[in-house]
Amino acid sequence: MNIEELRDYCLSKPGATEGFPFGEETLVFKVGEKIFLLIGLDNGTWFNVKCDPELAIELRERHWEITPGFHMNKKHWNSVRLDGGLSFKQLQEQIDHSYMLILKSLPKKLQDEIDALK
């Protein structure tokens, strides 16, 4: 997966938006105004995603490409290398999990509005 494919995949999620709230070096994807993925454009070799804390530990132990979230809460965020050995599907699973965690944290009314976009 390259950065263009990552961007397209993130924006294919219902209600997903992109922006640069932290400056032009960091592309941020949100759903319902909450971040589900960040990627640095300076090197574009890794991205940060939200993750269930227990799953985060399991994934870090199983895959060298997944580490505690760089510049993020290490309990709830993972950094994932794009240029490692993870398959396209495995990268998509990381994005999907993060998106769903954020979506489920939104108020029910907003969840319903986003669900209607499908």
TrEMBL record:
The record's Gene3D superfamilies line, in alphabetical order, gives: 3.90.1150.30
| A molecular function (GO) term | DNA binding
Please verify whether the record's keywords include Calcium: no
Q: What are the record keywords, sorted?
A: DNA-binding
The answer, when asked if Transferase is one of the entry's keywords, is no
What SUPFAM superfamilies does this protein map onto?
YjbR-like
Q: Which Pfam families match?
A: YjbR
Entry protein name: MmcQ/YjbR family DNA-binding protein
Q: What is the organism field in this record?
A: Pedobacter albus
Show the taxonomic lineage. Answer: Bacteria, Pseudomonadati, Bacteroidota, Sphingobacteriia, Sphingobacteriales
